[in-house]
C-alpha cells in the first residue's frame, strides 16, 4: 500500500502543469499629446517616399509583337470629308483586331498611343494619313499600338512629357509639409498649455493654503482679543472700587 501511494505521488510530480495560451490583441498606440497613431505616421512617411521616388513599372509578358504598314485610305474614302480622321482610326483598330487575333475582334481591346493618334490627326479631320507604320504588342489579350518610326519632333515631345511625369509633385509635398508643421504646432501648444495648467494648479494650491493659514490666524487673534478685553474690564472695575472706598 505504501509503495502504491509513493508511485502515485511521483506520477503527480512528473506531470507538467498545463500552460494556457492567451491570444494577444493588437492595440494601436496613440500619443497623448497628439491624437495620431503610429500607422498614420507611417502612412505619411510612405507618401513622402512615393512622391520622391518614381513608381517602378511592373513588367508583363508580351504574347505577340509585330510591325505592320496599315493602309488607311481605302477605309476613310467611303466616308464624308468631315469624318475621315475618325474613320481612319477605326480602320486601324479593325486591322489590328483582325491580324493580332483579338477575341471576337473587340475594338475596345485595341489601345492606340497618343502620339500615333496625334500623327493621324496632324493635318486635320479632312486630311488624315494614307498609311501608317505601326508596332503592335499583345499583352493579356489587349493590343497596344504605337509608332514604329518616330520622327524627331515627336521624340522631343515624348522626352518633355516623361520629364514632367518624373518630376516630384510639389503641391502634394507642400501639403504633407504643412500637415506636419500644423501637428508640431499643436504639440507645442498642448505642451505649453500643460505647463500653464500645472503652474496655475500650483498657484491655486498655494493660494488656498495661504487663505487657510489666514483664517486660522484670524480665529486665534479673535480669541486672544476677547481674553484681553475681559481682563482689562476686571482691572478697571477693581480700580474703581478701590477709589470709591478711599
Tell me what the structure shows.
This protein has 246 residues and is an alpha+beta fold. The protein has a domain of 100 residues: Ribosomal protein L31 (Ribosomal Protein L31e, Chain: W), CATH 3.10.440. 59% of the residues lie in helices and 11% in strands. It has seven helices and four strands. Strands 1-3-4-2 form a four-stranded mixed β-sheet. The longest helix has 76 residues. It starts with a helix and ends with a helix. About 7% of the residues have low confidence.
Task: Quickly list its features.
7 helices; rod-shaped; alpha+beta; 59% helix; 246 residues; four-stranded mixed β-sheet; 4 strands; Ribosomal Protein L31e, Chain: W
CATH homology-level superfamily of the domain at 64-163: Ribosomal protein L31
CATH architecture of the domain at 64-163: Roll
From the spread of the alpha carbons, the general shape counts as rod-shaped
- N- and C-termini, Cα separation: 117 Å
Rg of Cα set? 47 Å
| DSSP summary, beta strand count | 4
What is the CATH topology assignment of the domain at 64-163? Ribosomal Protein L31e, Chain: W
H/E element order: HHEHHEHEEHH
Concise summary:
With 246 residues, this protein is an alpha+beta fold. It has seven helices and four strands.
What does the secondary structure layout of this molecule look like, with pairings?
Blueprint: H1 2-14, H2 38-52, E1 64-71, H3 73-76, H4 84-99, E2 110-112, H5 114-120, E3 131-139, E4 142-147, H6 152-166, H7 170-245
Parallel strand pairs: 2-4
Antiparallel strand pairs: 1-3, 3-4
